[in-house]
Amino acid sequence: MVYDVNVKRIKVQLCYLAQCQEVLRQMDPQTSGLTEKFAAERALHLAVECMIDIGSVMIDGFIMRDPGGYSDIVEILLDEKVISADVAETLKKHVQLRERLVRYYDKVTWTEIRPMLGDMELYTSFSEQVESYLKQELGADWLA
Fold it and tell me: Is the pTM of this model over 0.85?
């Protein structure tokens, strides 16, 4: 079967995800300043957006079932063996935080954000698993 996967978009999103990861890696979980909190919130929010955008592009391109929302995108990626159960579980927590950051941004506290700063492996694992799936489905030249 020939797939129409927007690999260019996926590559851009993977690069942006790496930038979000770098910002978060530089964050000190013990800080409590307003600027640091805003930076962490924005980087966490955009990291989730990147992963969900990548998932959406893959779902469309590989003609997987239609998602009903962000959490469903994670479930589809898990069901289709794009990502592992561990990555899916952690990503679901980040999706929940993303909703709070978007809808209830004035109520999000450092207490909610700090644990997410320790999830740096999520971004690396997600990227590696997506790249592995693309290589498996599209061949080694998907990077070209």
Answer: yes
